[in-house]
Amino acid sequence: MVNLPRGSAASIDEAALLARLRAGDEQAFEVMVRAFGGRLLAVARRFVRDEADAQDVLQSAYLSAFRALAQFEGSSQLSTWLHRIVVNTALMKLRSRRRKPEDSIDQLLPGFLDDGHHVEQFADWTAPADRLLEQQETRATVRAAIDQLPDRYRVVLLLRDIEERPTQEVAEALQMTPTAVKVRLHRARQALSTLLRKIYAPSVTNP
Amino acid sequence: MTSGIKPMLTCREFADFMADYLADELSPAIKDSFDEHLRLCPNCRRYLASYKETVALGRHAFEDYEAMLPPEVPDDLVKAILAVRPRP
What we know:
The structure holds two protein chains of two kinds. Chain A is mainly alpha-helical. Helix content of chain A is 62%, strand content 0%. Chain A contains nine helices and no strands. In chain A, α2 (26-48) packs across α4 (78-96). By secondary structure, chain B is mostly helical. In chain B, 64% of the residues lie in helices and 0% in strands. Chain B has six helices and no strands. Chain B starts with 10 loop residues before the first helix and ends in a 5-residue tail after the last helix. Classes of the chains: A mainly alpha, B mainly alpha. Chains A and B meet through α2, α3, α5, α6 and α7 of A and α1, α2, α4 and α6 of B.
C-alpha cells in the first residue's frame, strides 16, 4: 500500500507520475488513485448525490482513465483531465438512473399578473455576494439551496456556473440544443434566486 | 400604421430575457428598452440584483467543499479501482 500525506494531490509532481504510469509502474497507479481520488469522489457526489453511485462513478471513471492513458497528451494537467472524466461519467450515471418523475420547478419561478407585472414585490438584497462569502456558512447555505433544485436544472447549473463548461459543450453532453441549455440555466438560476431570496432578501408580500 | 411609440417592455419579458441582457446578447435597440425598463421599474432592479448575487454566490459555492472533506478514498474503493486496471 502506498502511503500519501493528507492533501497530497496539490504537491504531486504530475509529469513524473505520468511518466511512471506510462512505464506501467504498479505503484504509480495507486498513487494516482489515492492522490486525486478524494477530491474526485467529492465531485462525483456533487453530481449524483448518492454515496454508492458516487463510488461507482469514481471506479468507472478511473477505468476509463486507465484505458485512455496512452491517448492523454498532457496538454492539460492530469488532475484536470481526471476531473473531466469524472464529470462525464457522473452525467452518464445520472442518465442511466431510473428516477421517479422530478418535482416541477414552476413554484420556484417568478409569478406574473395578467398585465405582465411581477406578483411579488422584491426586497433589497441584504449584502453583496463577496461580503456574504466571507462568512463560513454562506457556501453551505448556497449548496443546500442548489441541492433543492430538480436534477435536470441542478446539473445544468453545476456544469455552466460551477464547472464553467461552455454552452455548446453542455448541450452536447446533455443531448440538448444550446438554446435549451440557456433557457434551463436561466430557470435554474431564477429558482436558486427564489430560494436564496428567502434568506438574503426576505420579501414582505411573499415570505 | 404605427404610432411611433415603442411598446413598454413588461416585467415578464424583462425576467424571461434577463440572462441575455446580462450576457450582452441583445440587439442595441432591445437592450435600450431593457435599460429603460430598468430605469423605471424598481421591482425589476431588485429582481435583477437578486439574480446577479445568486449567480455570484453559486459560482463560489463549492470552492471550499472539497477542501473540507478528507482527501482519502476508502481503502476498499482503492482496491476495487486498482483491481479493474487493465494489465498489459
